Amino acid sequence: MELRTLGNTSVEITTLGLGGAGIAGLYAAVSDAEAAATIRRALDRGIRYFDTAPHYGAGRAESYLGGGLTGDCVISTKVGRMLVPLQPGEPAERSEFADAPPFRRVWDWSAEGILRSLSESLERLGTDRVDIVFMHDPDDHEEEVYAAAYPALAALREQGVIGAIGAGMNQSAMLTRFVERLDLDVVLCAGRYTLLDRSALEDLLPACERRGTSVVVGGVYNSGLLAGGTTYDYRPAPPDLLARVARLEEICAGHGVPLRAAALRFPLRHPAVASVVTGCRSAAEVDDNADLFERDIPDALWDEL
User: Fold this and answer.
1) Please, are residues 61 and 71 in contact by the beta-carbon 8 Å criterion?
2) What are the phi and psi torsion angles at 206 (to 5°)?
3) Beta carbons within 10 angstroms of residue 64's beta carbon
4) Which of 83, 91, 84 is nearest to 56 (CA)?
């Protein structure tokens, strides 16, 4: 696995990372044994970058990583959502994570909330320091980021408690504003720089090049459509996108390359992109993604795509 440095920091991450939502039970339960096997297999395949968040399974992903990671690994976690224990008789909140622990998620972008959230994450991860902290989905909280959340994280970076700070979102416009206004080391952009959606190329990626900010790309399969599924951004894909995917598959087949392999590697062709992150829920899925990632892809395919 190639290592790439984030911005002007000393943090290096592998070009393929493992996202923690899958092992936390996103859409389907994952056993403790399956989660542990997934992490072990990722380490076996050379993955040394692991992304997680309190939101993923209400802390479950962080606990799994804390118990399963060994050696020299880079972990990113997130702030913005506090986990509050359910009171006796309080109904569980609706969640896309199966069998989540008894917590509800509460937005908190105050400096106190950031510090408390990170402290609880460090406890679940079993460490006193984390390499990267992302502000998680602040779509409706932009001014709170400027006023409180970013200054709190910048102070922690100055103290050496965290190595790099950034923001993680499913849109590029606000991420671009953050890059231009704040001293971010890295951003995590999900679904907006893929073979189907290259909108981040219009705003975010040029801004990151100018500012020296690194990019981690998630959602490379656009929630399944580029991996053989029929959903795009978690909704049924419209006919025009289904037709585009069929054409992409045809082009890739002509070069002997699976579409999924091209989708996985495509973002890394941009100089600002440091890593792509995929969410795996089993050792077999880790092997599948790692095998795809290691495929040789001819330049002629990229030219035709």
Assistant:
1) no
2) -60, -40
3) 26
4) 83
pLDDT tens-place values along the chain, 305 residues long? 899 999 999 999 999 999 999 999 999 999 999 999 999 999 999 999 999 999 999 999 999 999 999 889 999 999 999 999 999 989 988 889 998 899 999 999 999 999 999 999 999 999 999 999 999 999 999 999 999 999 999 999 999 999 999 999 999 999 999 999 999 999 999 999 999 999 999 999 999 999 999 999 999 999 999 999 999 998 999 999 999 999 999 999 999 999 999 999 999 999 999 999 999 999 999 999 999 999 999 999 999 99
Q: Residue 20 — φ and ψ, nearest 5°?
A: -90, -5
Smallest CA-to-CA distance from 13 within 48, 38, 43 is with 48
Domain at 3-304, CATH homologous superfamily: NADP-dependent oxidoreductase domain (3.20.20.100)
Tell whether pTM > 0.85.
yes
User: Of 27, 49, 56, 64, which residue is the catalytic one?
Assistant: 56
Cα–Cα distance, 190 to 170 (Å, whole number):
5
Concerning whether 56 is annotated as a catalytic residue, the answer is yes
